[in-house]
Structure formats: C-alpha cells, structure tokens
C-alpha cells in the first residue's frame, strides 16, 4: 500500500516533513519517498528534516530529484537520503527517456543483485538498459550540468521576478512564496474570464501565444498553467510578459 502525506492545501500546497511522523508511527512503512521539488508547484520541502526522521526510525529514504539534480545543488549525503533519483531529459540537458540513480553503498548488493540463472543480468533492470542517443547525450551533458548549478541563485531570482510581473497582471502564483525554484504554477482567472466569452473558449490563449511565437501551453487551458523559467533569459521572459499584457489589452 502507498500512504500519501497530505499537503497544506491552497494556495501554497506545502508538504511538511514533520507530517511524515504520524504516518510512520501509524503504518511503519518499509520505504519513504519525497519529491524535491514537487512537479506541480515547484515547492522545496525540508528534505534534510525528513532525512533525520528516516534515520531515527531506520527507514530507507528515496529523494526524487527529477527537477533538482542537474538544475540546482543537491547532496544525497547532506540530506540524509539512501537513494536519489535524477532525470536526464528533465533536468540534465540530455535526450530521453533516461535517468540516473544514486544510492548508499550498503544498498548496492540489494539493488544491483544478479540473476541466479543469468550471471550478467541485473534483476531490477527489466528488459534492456539505456543505450544509444539517451545514454550518449546524458554523458555529454555532465560538464555543462556540473557548471550550470553554480548559477542557481540567478535562476531563482529570475523566477521570482517573472512571477511578480505576472501577478501584476492578475495572475496568482500558487506554491511557496518567496518561490525557490524555476517551476511555477499560476491560476489565471483573468484569462479564464476571457475564455468564457470568446468563440474559441480556452483555445484562444494557445492561439494568441502561438501567433507570437510562444509554444508550450496545453491547448484549451486558460484557467491555470505551469511553466519553467530555467531555459529562458530575462529578455525572452520579458517578451512573454509583454505578450500576456497585449492579450489582456486586446480582450479588455
């Protein structure tokens, strides 16, 4: 069974590491997992605090760093996790699908145990392992990824600036404030109001952005959307902000 630790609800949707304690005491889990940051709101829970709890109760701890490893400084050892997961295609500038797994040495024989029948086969690797373009591009990305995490403070500052500018337009950033990651989630009631009175409904936003050379939003969505500011510079983000201003002025 999977037991989910509740979040704080809107507007921040925080996960408090201390909320794991009641679930641990009640269910005595074999494994605990924390997604850092979460993929919906870009919140960064207290991963180190959960590491302390995991060690106190002697429970293996997985840190899902799909949006952390390769973007920002993160240390499995300092956090106190037993395992850390990274995503090559989400955060390490490589083709996908591909990921990486780090673990403490004490888990090596368990995770990488060999088949009794086929001595070269790792039991936990189902089918073929990674090969070809995903593997090559993952390896090629390492020097770039290692360097770019040194600029994480700049990425956070850029995301906070972008969020503040969109909130001036009537958008509402969900998740932690001040925000500490480039993943952002906005409620957009002003755009949703427009969608209710135009022929295209929610598709109007996709159409307007596409005409301005902006791609990414899911067609039909106008009530809310998620985005990342990581790969864009301030000039490009400024163009996005100005585009939203122009769209709102057009339908005002």
Automatic annotation (TrEMBL):
Its cofactor is pyridoxal 5'-phosphate. GO terms for molecular function: transferase activity. Pfam families: SepSecS. One of its GO terms (biological process) is translation. The keyword Magnesium does not apply. Keywords: Protein biosynthesis, Pyridoxal phosphate, Transferase. InterPro entries: PyrdxlP-dep_Trfase (IPR015424), PyrdxlP-dep_Trfase_major (IPR015421), PyrdxlP-dep_Trfase_small (IPR015422), SepSecS/SepCysS (IPR008829). This is Aminotransferase class V domain-containing protein.
């Amino acid at each position: 069974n999977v037991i989910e630790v509740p979040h704080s609800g809107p507007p921040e949707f925080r996960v408090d590491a201390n909320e794991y304690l009641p679930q641990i005491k009640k269910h005595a889990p074999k494994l605990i997992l924390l997604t850092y940051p979460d993929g919906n709101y870009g919140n960064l829970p207290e991963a180190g605090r959960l590491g302390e709890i995991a060690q106190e109760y002697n429970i293996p701890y997985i840190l899902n760093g799909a949006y952390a490893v390769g973007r920002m400084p993160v240390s499995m050892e300092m956090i106190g996790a037993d395992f850390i997961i990274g995503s090559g295609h989400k955060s390490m500038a490589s083709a996908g699908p591909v990921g990486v797994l780090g673990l403490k040495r004490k888990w090596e024989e368990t995770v990488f145990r060999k088949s009794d029948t086929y001595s070269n086969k790792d039991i936990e690797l189902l089918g073929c392992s990674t090969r070809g373009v995903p593997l090559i591009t993952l390896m090629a990305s390492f020097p770039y990824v290692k360097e770019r995490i040194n600029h994480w403070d700049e990425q956070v500052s850029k995301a906070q600036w972008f969020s503040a500018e969109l909130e001036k337009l009537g958008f509402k950033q969900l998740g932690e404030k001040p925000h500490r990651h480039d993943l952002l989630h906005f409620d957009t009631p002003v755009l949703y109001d427009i969608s209710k009175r135009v022929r295209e409904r929610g598709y109007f936003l996709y159409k307007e952005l596409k005409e301005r050379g902006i791609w990414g939003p899911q067609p039909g969505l106008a009530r809310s959307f998620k985005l990342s500011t990581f790969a864009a510079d301030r000039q490009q983000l400024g163009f996005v902000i100005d585009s939203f201003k122009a769209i709102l002025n057009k339908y005002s």
